[in-house]
Design a protein that fits this description.
The structure is a single chain. The chain is of the alpha/beta class. The protein contains seven helices and seven strands. It has two domains: 34 residues, no CATH class; 169 residues, Rossmann fold (3-Layer(aba) Sandwich), CATH 3.40.50. Strands 3-2-1-4-5-7-6 form a seven-stranded mixed β-sheet. Helix 1 crosses helix 5. The longest helix has 21 residues. InterPro entries: Methyltranfer_dom, SAM-dependent_MTases_sf. One of its GO terms (molecular function) is methyltransferase activity. It comes from Thermococcus paralvinellae.
């Protein structure tokens, strides 16, 4: 993933453009690196989930809660993917991702806003809608309902997350009540995150 080097370079530019000092840089970097041993297992699980999602997607993709856009760009670099739209509530992250589009791929687009409120293009539909580490902080029902509104007829919803607060069962219940087929429901691993040990899962729901 050579484009991660571009992330590194661009992040430094953002830091120095904002007036960051060498002392502040050392503090930020060291505060993150010292936590790596405790975070390593979680990072492995997160990367595994991301890799599986990338294998699943093609056509037009919506990445909800795209964050830094790493998944968004990786999906967009696939030949089978026509376009990926990443949406996030952080203006700073969206601006950062848009700075990188010309250097990585313009098949990735980034939109600032709340997924539940933002208006997408009229009649715009997606073949895959992805929620990666997005739903565990919320009740999934309104997000999944909104996803169905912009999902193509034979489209799929992919959720990769940690089973916090019964998230996995809530999604299963939603699918059952809405007569949606769960095409895949697998456990990817178990690791400590958010102060406890949770299973990470990948679920694929067919919307048609």
């Amino acid at each position: 993933m050579d484009f991660l080097k571009l992330y590194y370079e661009e992040a430094f530019k953002v830091f120095y453009e904002a007036g960051g000092s060498e002392e502040e840089l050392y503090w930020l970097v060291s505060s993150m690196l010292v936590r790596y041993p405790a975070y390593r297992d979680e990072l492995k699980v997160r990367r595994k989930l991301m890799d599986w999602i990338i294998q699943e997607t093609e056509g037009r993709v919506l990445d909800v809660g795209c964050g830094l856009g790493i998944l968004t760009f990786r999906m967009a670099l696939k030949d089978e993917v026509e376009k990926v739209m990443g949406i996030d509530k952080s203006q700073e992250l969206v601006d950062f991702c848009n700075r990188l589009r010309d250097r990585i791929t313009r098949k990735a687009e980034f939109l600032y806003g709340d997924f539940l409120e933002v208006k997408l293009g009229e009649g715009e539909e997606f073949d895959f809608i992805v929620f990666l580490y997005t739903l565990h902080d919320y009740e999934p029902k309104p997000f999944l309902e909104k996803a169905l509104e912009v999902l193509s007829q034979d489209g799929k919803i992919i959720i990769g997350d940690f089973d916090i607060d019964g998230l996995r069962e809530k999604i299963r219940t939603f699918a059952q009540k809405n007569e949606l087929k769960i095409a895949k429901d697998i456990t990817v691993g178990k690791t400590k995150t958010h102060g406890d040990f949770y299973e990470a899962f990948l679920m694929v729901i067919e919307g048609g």
